[in-house]
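Hey all, quick one. A colleague (J.T.) asked me to put the C2E job into the tracker so the inputs and the structure tokens live in one place instead of scattered across chat threads. No bug as far as I know, just bookkeeping. Sequence used:
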Amino acid sequence: MTDPREPIRVLVVDDEPAVRAAFASVLKPRSAAHADLDAMEAALFGASGSRVPDGPDDVVLVPQGEDACLVVERALAAGVRYAVAFVDMRMPPGWDGLQTAERLRAIDPQIQIVICTAYSDHSWDDVVARLGHVDGLLLLKKPFDPSEVRQMAAALGEKWRLTRQADADLARMHQLTTRLEATVSHLKLEVQSRVAAEQSLHQHAYFDALTGLPNRLRLHDRLADAFARKRRDPRYSFAVLFFDLDGFKLVNDSLGHDMGDRVLVEIARRLNDGLRDVDSVGRVAEEPASRLGGDEFVVVLDGVASDADAAVVADRLLTQISKPIDLVVQQVALSASVGIAVAGSHHASGDEILRDADTAMYRAKFERLRIATFDPAMQETARKRLCLESDMRRAVEAEHFSLAFQPIMHAASGKIAAIEALVRWDHPDYPTRMPDEFIPTAEETGLIVPLGRWILEAACRALADIRAKSPDASDLRLSVNVSRRQLLDPRFPADVREILRRTGVPANRLDIEVTESALIGDEAAAIHRLGELKQVGVGLHLDDFGTGYSSLSCLQSFPLDVVKIDRSFIRTLSESTKSASVVEAIVNLAHRLGIRVTIEGVETDPQLAAIQELGSDYAQGFLFHRPLPVARIHELLATARALQSGRALASVAQTAHVTSQITEIA
Ligand code: C2E
Ligand code: CA
Ligand code: CA
């Protein structure tokens, strides 16, 4: 920035010393020493004008154009500028005034130049023609009026100063503009990044980070819109499909969360892809698939008004979902269950239709239906289930459970070979509840894990007590039922080992009963877990064989000791030769593989006769004993020495018949 009080320097270029002296006296501050110049001044300039009070700060006088250029150049190098130059037109032998002016201009374009001429040979037009531009250039004809010279010096000095000031202002303005521009572009960036942040916030708020699908919040908005539309246009309808993967938790537990995440991403992709070609049924809304969280997905079908149409889409999507998923380490195939709810006048909100679809899904899952459509009766079931769950949670904490023990008979000797622990729920307000009423819910909610631990420990304690009181019972074995959820818990083998240690039951007296369905799905993981249990030293029994998957390869691939043939076979044994030959084949195959066989559910004498013929190793059923309280087992073992001495199974059954009325519990 220019100093507003920048000194005004004047340069006089004239070959005649007298003229230079005259300029000096006019422009330089008057002093006594210069009084003698006054006369010359008067002679040269004619009239004696009054001085301009504020003359220049400095005056330099040189004889030639070259000298002037040198002075200006040097000054400039030192950061000093000349404001005005009075240049004589004719300065032999050097440059003339115009040439000098040109050169000075070249050195310092801001310098104000006054060409002084006594001759008329150079008109203003000539000057303009030679110098091209006239800004900052004046012509002064001799003889000069001193006050005119002073005024000129002052005026041009002021003009120079103002020009400098203006230039400085301009430069400053330019600087400011640049800074402003920088600020503006910075602001623009700021705004952009805020917009981006807002978008990502929006993305986070409304979309699931893992799959990129709309999330619960966005689904709620969409359903609210759909209901608003339905109110405007009663002909409009839509359906909600609620998907829940079957056994997804097992993928997470056995393969890890990374693999679980991959499965979810793949399922999301399949839902979206699968929805692309369902428009034959109904128009697919924008963003039809959402993820509610976990392994729950929701699909909204626009324009679908019937359960049947929705079921067609659900079925197609299920087919897509259940194709094997390649996880590099291994393939998994997951099924899913779908609940359908079609928007109706009874729905007031998105929450309500979602709740109905969820209820239907639950039914589909538990009745293994794949697809279920909501009907109002389900709501009651769902409510009951919820009550059951919270009731059971409290019961697990309060240990409101007990065990009944059902003997398992050795077929050849008729001895009690083992007792099977069967859990009962002793609800303070209701009659005792049977396991079929609550075990499925316990499995679904995971409550089976703490409950199962309690059962195992209580059963082992009971056996330890029996062993302590009945010396003959040292061979007696204990069977405990274990659900899929427990088996897949990686801590399960360690839990078993610890409970055996605490209760003092030898590992080779405990048998774990698992169903086939607990082993299916991830067979490698199941084999690994069963191997760990073998290491602990317990026996492994395959329960309910013949129901569900019934693959004979099961017998070969798992390290089993005993296979228990499900009672549904026994029921038809005496009537159907077909089921007799199936059972016979199973018994033979098992025996060939070194696996013993138990037939359960033996209720009648003809059934007993049939299984004896088939060569079963063990038999269990109401014909011999019902599940009994542990006290009755003690009594039985005490009074049953005779039974244990090798009487035939048939006579055991007969005796049991007589006593069953008394010993039966629930
Ligand atoms: P399960 O393991 O097949 O147990 C045998 C079931 O068949 C028992 O029913 C028993 O009372 C019944 N039963 C035994 N003999 C006969 C017979 O001759 N005729 C008929 N009709 N039934 C007979 P319960 O105690 O109601 O148990 C039902 C199921 O609940 C069990 O089937 C088992 O899958 C499950 N369960 C029972 N206790 C436990 C447990 O502690 N843990 C687990 N995870 N599941 C259990
Ligand atoms: Ca069992
Ligand atoms: Ca069974």
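Adding what we noticed when we looked at it: The CA atoms of residues 78 and 582 lie 117 Å apart. The chain has three domains: 9-169, 216-375, 408-663.
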